[in-house]
Amino acid sequence: MREETSDSEIRELLLGLIRERDQLRSGLKLARAAIVEMESQNIELDRLLSDAHASILAANPKPVVTPATTSWIGMWACSPTEYPSLAPIETLFRTGQTQQALNWMPSFLKREDLDDLHHVNGRLLYAAMLQSTGSHLRIALLYAEEALQISNEVRLYELSSKANFWRGLCYLCMDEFANAKWCLALASHLSGHRALVRECQGIVEQQLGRLPEAKREVTTDFKFYCSALMDEFVRGT
Fold this sequence. Notes:
Helix content: 55-70%
Shape: elongated
Largest sheet: 2 strands, antiparallel
Order of helices and strands: HEEHHHHHHHH
Low-confidence stretches: 62-68
Strand order of the largest sheet: 1-2
Number of strands: 2
């Protein structure tokens, strides 16, 4: 037979529940205070970072790039006034001393005084010279991809287009026409050289038209260096 709970037992039970409730309320108040404090610290940190960024920009103003006089070495646009550190190497390349120019490049790319523009264009010039030899296309592609990664990281999107153009040329020379097609598509808004990009796209489309449908897809190791959605869309995954 079940025993009835006495009034005193019920009272103790209720008091215990009240104590637990009060403890929870106290804990919630402490947690809320901690959250408010963290939000205040985040606001202050954001202000300090903004002030520091503004100070850095004021101390190191972005240089104004003046339009360069451009000449062409094969498919490479030579701009000595815009990239003066590259001028001696470009001169060697332009005068047919390609091997000597190639010998200069490894030490040039290791220099610690180069800005982002020279880092990207140095790698693209190296890719152009390697591609011109016809026997180092995979290495040329690697340097073009390095240039693309750097330009994307520092948001030099015009140079990203230029890097994609050189990737496209490397793939074109390696007869990987679907890869070349997508690189040139990503380079299609390269300012000042759209006609050249369209000319290369025409060559690629002509070559793709000669291939069976099954061979018109990008290779499994091809990298878009853009959103995962783009990758999934093109691969049909």
